[in-house]
Amino acid sequence: MLRVYLQLSLILTLGAAAPAGDPGRDLLGLWKLPGDDGKFNGTDREVVIPHSRELDVGKGDFTIPLWGHFEQALGGVVGDLGTKLDPQTHRGWSLSIVSNAAAASAQANHRQLHFSIDDGRPEPPWTDCGRPGEAVYVFALAVHDGCLYSGTCEPGVDAAGHVHRYAGGTVWVDRGRAPDKANAVTALASFEGSLYAATAKYRLRGSSLPESPNEHHGGSVYRLQGDGRWIHCGKLGDAEAVSSLVVYRGRLYASSLYSPGVWRYEGESRWTNLGTPGGRRVEALAPFNGALYGGGYDAGEVYRYEPDLGWKVVTAISDATQTYGFAVYRGRLHVGTWPSGSVFRQDKEGWTSTGRLGNEKEVMGMAIYGGRLYAGTLPLAEVYRYDGDGRWTS
């Protein structure tokens, strides 16, 4: 359950934001208007206010007074708390609690308070942030405890996947290699105050790279300690590779990359196999509106899991043979596909194409940033921004 109270009154200009525990502390003034409070259930409730010049924030400071309570074990994302953003001019602001759960294989961030403001400036150029170790492939990026971490693939015969912490500039600090000696750390997730990492024997020819001579299997999940130790948290059955990690309803879930399987973590080194729909592979995992959604490589389908109901095939997307990362944008679930290079949005009537990203074939990863939807593609490795009405800008 998510409860948010947003007061739209003269406090916007005369009030000051107060700590969550005492909404009245340091308040300068409040002229309460009848019916100005809104209570939201976090799924299908919203307040839409038509644009007017009085709502322009101008060039000075402004305050957004909002008090919210978010249950720890949510079955979805919190998302936008308040937004005033023109997708055409790229001017406005956005205040959100962001969880990019299925950006690709990692839970990129989890319940982060995010504020952005934009005055229509051009997108800044990309900056080289360095190469983590000897990586040929950065599988996962995730924020944990205020730091950015990467999971890498290092395919050499005596090499293994690593986790690195970003130290600014082009510097990455090595946090250690996979204890099972597998060639890749494919997934990362922040869970109950710790960073979890999953391993894989990745088959590099699937990325048009020379196959790895490293024969060590992955399929394990580890918890990284502050002193540098990797604590083994169990193996996903006979899986040789973990595809993704995600937190759903306060529990940690993982999926297998090559053999079908989705597991729920039960503590210590125990995992419960939840199966898959029809024995198909489920890859990216995304919590949304109480259910856990999954994409897959076998049939271009989207799947939904609920603890009391099990798995269900939600849809088979036209012109798609594989479904990849998910994103929740403007309250709707979006999924990337192969081989049409398109993103589809879940609507009440079904799944609607938001357009193709240039001439690309695959949309592998997506994320929300600054109140807007971004997507990464193959084979040209471009990043696109969604500008609405089927328009994607590279």
Mean pLDDT: 87
| Count of spatially separate domains | 2
- Number of contiguous helices: 1
| Biggest sheet, spatial arrangement of strands | 7-8-9-10
Helix content percent band: under 10%
Portion in strands? over 45%
Structural Rg: 22 Å
The CATH first-level class of the largest domain comes to Mainly Beta
Q: Any guess at the CATH architecture of the largest domain?
A: 6 Propeller
Please give the largest β-sheet: 4 strands, antiparallel
Structural class call reads mainly beta
Low-confidence stretches: 1-20
Number of extended strands = 30
Distance between the termini: 37 Å
Notes on the structure:
By secondary structure, the protein is mainly β. 1% of the residues lie in helices and 47% in strands. The protein has 2 domains: 1-70, no CATH class; 137-393, Neuraminidase (6 Propeller). It has one helix at residues 11-14, and strands at 2-7, 37-39, 66-70, 79-86, 91-98, 112-119, 137-144, 147-153, 162-166, 172-177, 184-191, 194-200, 220-224, 230-235, 242-248, 251-256, 262-267, 270-273, 285-288, 291-295, 301-306, 310-316, 322-329, 332-338, 342-347, 350-356, 362-369, 372-378, 383-386, 392-393. The strands form 8 sheets. The protein has a 4-stranded antiparallel β-sheet, with no helix packed on it. The two termini are 37 Å apart.
List keywords for this structure.
single chain; 394 residues; mainly beta; Neuraminidase; 2 domains; four-stranded antiparallel sheet; 1 helix; globular; disordered N terminus
